[in-house]
Amino acid sequence: MDWTIPKFPLDTLSDEGLDWLTDHGSWLTRAVSRHVADWIDALTSALVAVPPWILIGAAALATWKVGGRRIGLLTLFGLLFLWNLRLWQATVETLVLVVLATAAALVIGIPVGIWFALSRRAWRIFSPVLDMMQTLPSFVYLIPALPFFGLGAVSACFATIVFSVPPVIRLTALGIRNVPSELVEASDAFGGSSAQKLFKVQLPLALPTIMAGVNQTMMLALSMVVIAAMIGAGGLGRVVWQSIQRLEAGAGFEAGIGIVILAVILDRATQALAARARPHGTA
């Protein structure tokens, strides 16, 4: 005997929910989109207007200061190589999107992580949401960005923020909750307020773990910005996407190497920052 089980209409419900949100909230997202697009264009134009050798030298000096000679030289020669490949503007566009998306993810993620660390009920409720966000395929995040923000860099930026925010939330909460209880109790014993305990004890000791979350967030943002070229983002991702469409393997390989170089520089720089944040005497 054949049994037919009705299909749960998840696709229909999702479409209807997205349509409702678009109808009632697109006026706000479109206004935000125009302002964010202006910021992206202004920052990109300002950086592109600066002679590349000045930006490359400044980036090399900054990473040298943060992480030492090896990272400084890696930055210098890596960016010079990208300039030589005629990928400088695409690199700047990618870097602007990554920095803006990472900054927004940190502004959102660190306070939420603090809340989760201080409220076990909030952590129990929202931890499965973070698990779902980290297991969803990255392409799924592109779907809701389009009706709200349209094609372009703004959609890419917002999709990147949502995609990259879970690590910093999780690691901020983990770092604060792993602060030794003896130190927290000592703060309470000396009459410290909740704010003093948070900003003078818990956050400084949790900073290395939070910096690890910053590193992961930045790496996820870079990977998502590349994928977001499918919805109109510029930069190195667009070069890769165009090379796939045109079957230009050489151009795609050059852009891919550019993404690797940029990822290594950002990864090493943020790892060096995390190492500097680690208290002396700890591994």
Give a structural overview.
Helix content is 83%, strand content 0%. The chain has 283 residues and is mostly helical. Helix 3 packs antiparallel against helix 11, helix 4 runs antiparallel to helix 9 (194-227) and helix 6 crosses helix 7 (153-177).
What would a concise description of this structure say?
This protein has 283 residues and is an all-alpha fold. It contains 11 helices and no strands. The model has no long low-confidence stretch (mean pLDDT 83).
Kindly state the percentage of residues in helix.
Answer: over 70%
List low-confidence stretches: none
Mean pLDDT across the residues is 83
Strand count, sense and closure of the main sheet?
none
* H and E string: HHHHHHHHHHH
> SS-based structural class?
mainly alpha
Count of DSSP-assigned helices:
11
> Whole-Å distance between the termini?
65 Å
Gyration radius (Cα, Å) is 22 Å
Instruction: Give the tally of β-strands.
Output: 0
**Which word captures the global form?**
globular
**Beta fraction:** under 5%
